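Rotation project, supervised by the postdoc (A.L.). Task for the rotation student: set up a whole-complex structure prediction and record inputs and outputs verbatim in this book. Inputs entered:
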Amino acid sequence: MALQSDTDAATPKFLRGKYAICGVGETTYRRGSQESTRNLATWAINNALEDAGMTADDVDGMLDYSGNDSVFAPQVANDLGIRLNFYMDVHGGGSSTEALIGIAIGVIEAGMCKTVAIYRAMNGYSQVRIGGTGARSAVPINGDQIHHRGYGWQSAGQMFAPTFLRHMYDYGTTPEQVAHVKVAHSKHASNNPKAYYKTRYTVEDVVNSRIICKPLHLLDCCVETDNATCIIVTSIDRARDCKNAPAVIQSVAGRVCKPRGDIHLHYQHGPISTVAGHYAKDIIFPNAGVGPKDIDITGSYDAFTFTTMLQLEDYGFCEKGEGGDYVSSGAIELGGRRPNNTSGGHLCEGYTHGMNMVIENTRQLRGEVDDSCPVGPDGKKQHTYDYSEGGCRQVKGVEMSANLGWAHPGAGSAMIMAKDAR
Amino acid sequence: MPIQGEYMGMMLTIDDVDQENREFFRHCAEGTFHLQKGKESGLLRYPPTTACPWTRDREYDWVPVEGKGAVHSYAEVHHPIQPAFREKVPYMVLVVDLDTQLGQPTEHEALRVAGNLLTADSEFVLPETIKSVGIGTRVRMVFTEVTEGFALPHWTIDEDAEQPENPWRYPQE
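Outputs recorded:
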């Protein structure tokens, strides 16, 4: 009998290059929005429609995800005067963005609708805190949850800690190496006017901040913010009629799981320092027809510094076990070989459950990131490629990006996009 | 009727249709650790599930299992979420490789059973004790009662076992 790990999960490759992200948008990243998630959603979708040069009539599909903390698509569509031919409200968190982009491609391909707006609207600081405090800690504990929450093992950091520590044990990874992820992302955020945290941090700042749950210091953990984000997916032909250049989807993987891939079951299958990217890489790279070496920028799910390190390693951007060396080598910083999370990501820009890293890579592929560089007479950014504090964050000559979504060590999603060859 | 009890300020509930968890925690309340053993595969599994992950077999027996093993990895919490854990920090959640069925059915599979590190009397340990425990530490199971017919399995240092000289700990103390 074939092992689960031997299963060829590769999907048909004929969809490579046929779909694109044609519009992206977000609200401001704040703490204390004083607005409903419904209001935040309409704001972000309007910005994405504006970015695409589309009207309400151009969108007829909607997808969103949440965990009992947001608004459903029919209400948002109602507010915006969008008549839907397809919608679905999905339960989920971090691994949803790329997975929903894949679903959008599928439903358009099936002829169910033409253009899908994907949104995530959340008051992740002022209403339902993703870290598990407040309303989340007061939820009754039932059945299977007793096996973890009964032990005071609840927040994402607490749940992932055994994986992080085991990686240190297995490979000699150090706290200082992993702290470089925060250093890099904070450097990027300092060149992002919309980032929630724009301060640059050092390795010493990170390892001297207080311990939350070993091995996580405060600065190894992401920010919690209130915001909404939107990504519009359509066919490449429609995308080419839009206002901005399309980010062309080469391949996508959605919620790929390790064996026993549930948040509290995945420890039953080792090595526990291996994460779901180990399996997802065998879908996204063959389907895109490229390898890790062809990728210019990455967008990894940085709920924690460690998640970025583990993903970059298991997706093959470095050898297994060498993630600590890779993230501390300068490779992931602006100016480095393959910058990661150039907007500052979840650690610094804002927490959006994965959306903002896809939005950032879309803008990078267009050559149009929203940094402080001046706008020229042609209406385009005049990028300086000077990455000093407060400066440019556009990466030069970006042709291909990879996004690496994460739900927990046992499940993840991913996507490869390319600059439009036209 | 659901089984319900308050533990560490949390209301823990097992629905009456949740037969797997009811049996699991009932055995714990009787002071003997039991796991489901698939009838076809003869393999034990944890935590309770509705079918055998290796054969899809829905038939199983509850069998007693020795609660001994070594720490595979852990979480050491300094910033708690639930209010009642505030006075217990730092506390450890251990993920323990059971001696039973170790390396079966494959080298990467093991029964890895979670629980807090407690004293032999089922109290949360002092910080000095935490500093002696890491990957490789030998532990044995203890139980804490939630309510009648419902107890949680936990871990304590196995005083009778030969302990590793330096169990691996997070380097920054």
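Student's summary: The mean pLDDT of chain B is 97.
Supervisor addendum: DSSP finds two helices and ten strands in chain B.
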